[in-house]
């Protein structure tokens, strides 16, 4: 399923995936931010980054949402595979 999402992400926006992944890991270790808020913070950062990278507001919002979704999905796949609960 992850590959299906990635085919819709432009090459310019792919650079956001590792950035959002690392930011998500850093946010996970902050005591003042609840876990449920991390995807929302990543979404705001992803959309902002998408707009800055793509240049067009609508396309940037779409790319930001797709990149954030792919990043969160990838994190969950890795996390669930390693824990196997």
UniProtKB/TrEMBL annotation:
Keywords (alphabetical) are: Membrane, Transmembrane, Transmembrane helix
What is the superkingdom listed in this entry's lineage? Bacteria
Where do transmembrane segments lie in this chain? 6-27, 34-54
A Pfam family annotated for this UniProt entry? Phage_holin_5_2
Kindly indicate whether the keyword Transmembrane helix belongs to this entry.
Answer: yes
Which protein is depicted?
Holin
- Which species is this record about? Paenibacillus pinisoli
């Amino acid at each position: 399923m992850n590959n299906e999402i990635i085919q819709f992400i432009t090459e310019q926006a792919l650079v956001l995936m590792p950035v959002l992944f690392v930011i998500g890991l850093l946010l996970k270790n902050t005591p003042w931010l609840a876990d449920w808020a991390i995807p929302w913070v990543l979404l705001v950062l992803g959309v902002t980054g998408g707009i800055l990278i793509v240049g067009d507001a609508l396309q940037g919002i779409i790319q930001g949402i797709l990149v954030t979704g792919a990043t969160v999905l990838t994190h969950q796949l890795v996390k669930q595979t390693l824990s196997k609960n």
